[in-house]
């Protein structure tokens, strides 16, 4: 399964945006083409990403949405806030915006160090008991936090960045997910477009790997993978997604796009063979990645382990 990440659609999802109707049609087209899982969050917009999905899908398909960033009215403060009363209000707002009977997957967007994870899990457990939420999840959480949360409320899904150049979850998180029976959602499986060949140098990117000083060095990796993709009869994006899919049937890549044909192509990706994965790993070994995966600011919101 390939999930559709809807972040790139969100800047165009404001009510007066001329592209909003287009994105609604793309979402409906993706669902009709077989996309089953859509990934969003209340912070996208804020709120307009969920509203767009609600208008596009209503109660159809499966949606993963998230809470945990503080929003003052409609303005993000840049701080985390997972206090129980905030979670409850966020859940009810998401239900209304998404036009759904319940939230399929409800994930804490980032772990809030000021709120015990047991309080977070307990609050979501209450929402599950009330029928407002079907399943609980965590994003960018450490193995210890995942286990502590799961002891209070079953963790059904864990989402973290995972791709050809971000393999941190292999250290322990994937094992913990398999230990507790949780699915793993791999966001940015295409490295913010880098492994699809669509990224360009961007000094303002949240990923230093795309900053001009690192982009040129990383281009050698992109070129080598592109050559391998040609040899294997795959596109670059198909190669990157196929590698992620090959790491386990319990791993769901979350690939974003605003182009329906590209979404269909991504959804048709198949796992690489063991031999193909070995060849990819050989290319990665020959071309070490330059730059950390996030800027220091963004890394400060991710649990280190």
TrEMBL record:
The keyword Transcription does not apply. GO terms for molecular function: pyridoxine 4-dehydrogenase (NADP+) activity. It comes from the Bacteria. One of its GO terms (cellular component) is cytoplasm. Keywords: Oxidoreductase. InterPro entries: Aldo-Keto_reductase, NAD(P)_OxRdtase_dom_sf, NADP_OxRdtase_dom. Its EC number is 1.1.1.65. It holds the Pfam family Aldo_ket_red. Residues 13-284 form the NADP-dependent oxidoreductase domain. SUPFAM superfamilies: NAD(P)-linked oxidoreductase. PANTHER family: AFLATOXIN B1 ALDEHYDE REDUCTASE (PTHR43625), ALDO-KETO REDUCTASE (PTHR43625:SF77). This is Putative oxidoreductase, aryl-alcohol dehydrogenase like protein.
